């Protein structure tokens, strides 16, 4: 492959060469440097204050020329002069025109250019060298099977499985769409001499996923040197990133922030992200993180639902629900659950329609109104007289799903540690299990309170009374 094995890397460069690269390409540091924190070298490189920094007295801590920002717009500009990059992006069609697709292909091209066994492909640019300073990211997609088994019962386990499937589809798309290009066939896909493997695509994904920032005025992108800053949330965040009037990337000290010499200059990767997403995208949890913050729990339609196949076919939303903290309670939200809790007697109907080209497709209706987008179903149910009934069904279903998830996590409370399980995955998995179990316990209590409140609803009392009368009428007294 391009890297000759993940442990070895693709011609990685030591971080102490970064200042020379930055100076040569117009990146300016103002009283900061990039490197390992003294005594914390195991954490990798970060942004460090070279002297005391105080709010109101500082120029931008870092200025990155706009041409160095790895964004979809800049990649499209580079493709105008790099015919090999342009070839691949064009061959990939819609995927090559997305931000994710264009950035991953750009990173792949830089790795290809850096491979000593590949000649006359691509144009060397400043970012070709910068990529070599980026460290390997130990994200869960690179955990061993034994290490991933430690995540059983957490929301991270299905997320990793879904990511693997997504990466496989992307990799096969890249292969299918580019193997007709002569140099791609020769250097990437040849059975004997090809260099590109699925593990390499995983590596590119890890680089992008762990370093992409939503930069004001640019969107999702990678900003060299700024992406070396580590994360700290809320009040602990030391610096902000934004663009100036010319589109250059800036790193700015936050208002009312003071950083002592040799202190760390941190940014936020997103204060509202949950524990699962931090490990999934960045491979760490903040020190002192006491709550999972948010969880997405998968949800299935019961097998005894006769409409299950049709519901699965027409759904346009993710099959699950999100738990999140708000005002010292655990709340929930889901577009999918409303499709699960209604049935034919409520007013849900499916019909077969023949299209103009002779094909047949399923149409969904809610009380004679066509249901084109199931994400809008909740709004229709809210306007229904039985809205409280639908809410009660949803809450009871969620209670059962939360209880099941808790049971699996409890079974994993004290797993056996194998000899090949590394400290990082072992500790992260244990913390995640604890945080998510605690959140599920709180969710169960809050759902019970919601159920109790709903049961007092006049609508539900009347509905339940009517159901009891129907059942009595159906009793055979003979």
UniProtKB/TrEMBL annotation:
GO terms for cellular component: nucleus. It comes from the Eukaryota. InterPro entries: SET_dom (IPR001214), SET_dom_sf (IPR046341), SETD3_SETD6_MTase (IPR050600). Residues 30-270 form the SET domain. GO terms for molecular function: protein-lysine N-methyltransferase activity. Coiled coil: none annotated. CDD domains: SET_LSMT (cd10527). PANTHER family: SET DOMAIN-CONTAINING PROTEIN 8, UNCHARACTERIZED PUTATIVE METHYLTRANSFERASE. This is SET domain-containing protein.
């Amino acid at each position: 492959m391009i890297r000759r094995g993940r442990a070895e890397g693709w011609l990685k460069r030591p971080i102490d060469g970064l200042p020379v690269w930055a100076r040569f390409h117009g990146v300016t540091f103002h009283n900061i440097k990039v490197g390992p924190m003294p005594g914390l070298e195991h954490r990798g490189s970060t942004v460090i204050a070279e002297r005391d920094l105080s709010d109101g007295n500082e120029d931008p801590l870092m200025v990155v020329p706009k041409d160095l920002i790895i964004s979809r717009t800049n990649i499209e500009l580079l493709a105008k002069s790099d015919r090999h990059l342009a070839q691949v992006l064009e061959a990939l069609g819609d995927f090559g025109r997305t931000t994710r697709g264009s950035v991953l292909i750009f990173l792949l091209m830089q790795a290809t250019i850096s491979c000593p066994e590949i000649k006359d492909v691509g144009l060397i640019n400043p970012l070709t060298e910068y990529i070599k300073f980026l460290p390997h990211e130990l994200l869960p997609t690179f955990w061993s099977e034994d290490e991933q088994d430690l995540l059983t019962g957490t929301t991270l386990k299905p997320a990793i499985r879904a990511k693997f499937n997504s990466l496989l589809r992307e990799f096969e798309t890249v292969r299918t769409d580019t193997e007709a290009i002569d140099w791609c066939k020769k250097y990437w896909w040849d059975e004997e001499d090809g260099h590109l493997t699925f593990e390499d695509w995983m590596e590119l994904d890890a680089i992008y996923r762990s370093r992409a920032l939503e930069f004001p005025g640019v969107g999702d992108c990678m900003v060299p040197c700024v992406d070396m800053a580590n994360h700290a949330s809320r009040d602990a965040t030391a610096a902000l990133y934004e663009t100036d009037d010319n589109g250059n990337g800036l790193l700015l000290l936050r208002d009312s922030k003071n950083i002592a010499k040799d202190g760390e200059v941190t940014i936020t990767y997103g204060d509202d992200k949950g524990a699962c997403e931090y490990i999934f995208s960045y491979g760490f949890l903040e020190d002192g993180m006491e709550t999972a913050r948010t969880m997405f729990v998968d949800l299935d339609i019961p097998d005894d639902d006769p409409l299950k196949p049709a519901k699965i076919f027409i759904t346009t939303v993710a099959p699950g629900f999100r738990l999140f903290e708000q005002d010292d309670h655990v709340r929930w939200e889901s577009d999918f659950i409303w499709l699960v809790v209604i049935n034919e007697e409520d007013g849900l109907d499916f019909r077969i329609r023949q299209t103009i080209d002779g094909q047949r497709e399923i149409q969904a209706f809610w009380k004679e109104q066509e249901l084109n987008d199931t994400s809008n179903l909740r709004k229709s149910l809210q306007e229904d007289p039985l809205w409280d009934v639908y809410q009660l069904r949803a809450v009871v279903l969620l209670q059962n799903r939360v209880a099941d998830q808790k049971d699996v996590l409890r079974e994993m409370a004290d797993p056996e540690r194998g000899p090949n399980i590394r400290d990082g995955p072992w500790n992260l998995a244990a913390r995640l299990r604890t945080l998510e179990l605690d959140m599920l316990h709180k969710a169960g209590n809050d759902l019970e309170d919601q159920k109790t409140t709903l049961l007092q609803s006049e609508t539900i009392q009347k509905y339940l009374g009517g159901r009891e009368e129907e059942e009595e009428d159906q009793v055979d007294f003979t």
